[in-house]
Specification:
There is one protein chain. The chain is mainly alpha-helical. The chain has one domain. It has 3 helices and no strands. The structure holds zinc ion. The site of zinc ion has 7 residues, from helix 2 and helix 3.
Length: 60
């Protein structure tokens, strides 16, 4: 494995972690998500962004 490939994997992992932390922190800032335990449109967007980041990390 070349260093460049490893760097891409690391970047993918960081993107996943960043997207995941944004998703799990969202309810702390969002009344409907916190009180009702539901995904508002923003939570759904963050969840999708996390999934996309995971897909890209796997594909890299
Ligand atoms: Zn929300």
């Amino acid at each position: 494995m070349t260093g460049q490939v490893q760097a891409q994997l690391d970047a993918g992992e960081r993107a996943v972690q960043t997207a995941y932390s944004a998703f799990i922190k969202h309810p702390q800032l969002c009344g409907p998500c916190r009180k009702e335990g539901e995904d508002c449109p923003e939570a759904a967007r963050l969840r999708q962004a996390w999934r996309d980041a995971k897909d890209e990390a796997v594909a890299a």
